[in-house]
Structures
1.
Amino acid sequence: MRLGDSQDEGEFRTRLRDWLSGQIPAGVPQEWDSERLRAWSKSLYQAGYAGLSWPVEHGGRGLPAAYQAIYAEESALAGAPDHVNVIGLNMVGPTIIKYGTQAQLAEFLPGILSGETIFCQGFSEPDAGSDLASVRTRARAHPKGYQVDGEKVWSSYAHLADYCLLLVRTDPEAVKHHGLTCLLMDMRAPGVQVRPLRELSGDTDFNQVILTDVVVGADSVLGPVGQGWRVAMTTLAHERGTFGITLTSRLSAELDRLVQTVLTLGAGSDPLVRKEIAELHVQLQGLRFTGYRALAELQRTGEPGAESSILKLGWSLANQRLTALALRVLGPDAAFDGPQAFWSGYWQQQHLRSRTNSIEGGTSEILRGIVAERVLGLPRTR
Ligand SMILES: Cc1cc2nc3c(=O)[nH]c(=O)nc-3n(C[C@H](O)[C@H](O)[C@H](O)COP(=O)(O)OP(=O)(O)OC[C@H]3O[C@@H](n4cnc5c(N)ncnc54)[C@H](O)[C@@H]3O)c2cc1C
């Protein structure tokens, strides 16, 4: 496995690093509200950093996944946030490229790339999270296409989104994984109600989406009717793509911030703090190389391998451990909030947000099951 950059990759990294350093002030972590995020996303597009691995004929730059990984590493080091259309760019766009009609390609891809058409992902329901095939949101035949009724939860960015990649049940008689269909639903259609859910961290990045008699045109079906499971699995495979590299790069930047915090607060000679930091560093190096293995597999086969499950599991635990250590180092000052707090409460916020890491994108229990069955070859339990 080659771990260093090729000459072209190295030049790309240098240009990107220079560009990022001109965009994002170094030092204390920044606040990003949705307006600032949109402006940031637009500048990413204008500078040619949106859709790096999308095919050229669909408006991307047609670069190998390694370039997306370089983008992930450098943007994490620079403290850059996610693109506001992270779901559209990384997950929905590639799914439309695979399954979309010519009309859908023309209608959605340019706006996804430029950040003007924001997508959310409407898969989870109150009784369909880990067991996604239990989706009950119903789409019945309607003269214009389908009439949709049901409820989705935890839809990240649904309050900002223009469209939703929605997983619905079109055939209630069919067995679980069959009878599902994917729709590209207009979030402003009558009957779509978005209710923000407040997270433990105080953020309201995700939502409940109530759907009452929503009419969706027949031309909004993505992929074959009744084959929504296959379409949804394509979306989830893209979620895992180079995401592992993004996660470990962010964790590495976070560990640097923790070391900075430890030194600023004079805790650098505390033996327990030193031990924890050394262990986190070792853990992180393990994750980093697992990320490179996942990338090598992705480049070889086009599909992310089981490494991505190990990576997501290890990353969530390490991130929770890191932010818990940050609060221990802050000591009683961890109780402060807002401008009085160290870095305006950055670590408090990160710690609370890290609780979701072992739930979002596949819970730790589910990932352990995947590792047991698909990596270690243990018998299936269900
Ligand atoms: C921050 C965040 C953002 C999210 N964004 C989105 C989004 O944009 N779109 C979207 O559709 N969804 C989103 N989700 C939802 C996420 O995908 C689900 O929360 C996740 O799949 C778990 O489903 P659940 O919450 O229904 O829990 P459940 O599946 O009900 O699980 C409850 C508990 O039971 C355990 N469990 C369940 N089945 C098994 C099993 N077979 N073996 C062992 N243990 C098991 C789980 O691990 C968990 O601990 C988001 C979630 C979070 C936290």
Note: The pocket of flavin-adenine dinucleotide is lined by residues 120-124, 129-130, 154-156, 206, 356, 359-360, 363, 365-366, 369, 382 (CB under 6 Å).
2.
Amino acid sequence: MVKITFVDSGGTQRSVEAEPGSTVMENAIRNAVPGIEAECGGACACATCHVYVDEAWTSVVGPASPMEEDMLDFAFEVKPNSRLSCQIKVRPELDGLIVNTPSRQA
Ligand code: FES
């Protein structure tokens, strides 16, 4: 299993155990992590699963695809480390991943 820690805008941390092949968003929803809405269910069509990837992890996670970049235009307070969590596939290399949830979704 791969450990992922979600940190909300108030600094509260919640760690979950994620199955490789699932997405970061699916694990947030499955564990009722607040701050991830995922209205479209992971279709890269809503931008309400927006997260900020911890600076130490951005190169491991990798960049957003062009389609994801387009959808991120609809997210709230986008930063260079913004990603849509439904587009981040859990891999063994992501064990220990930290993502921050924004103060609100789009
Ligand atoms: S869940 Fe809708 S874009 Fe990620």
Note: The longest helix spans residues 24-30.
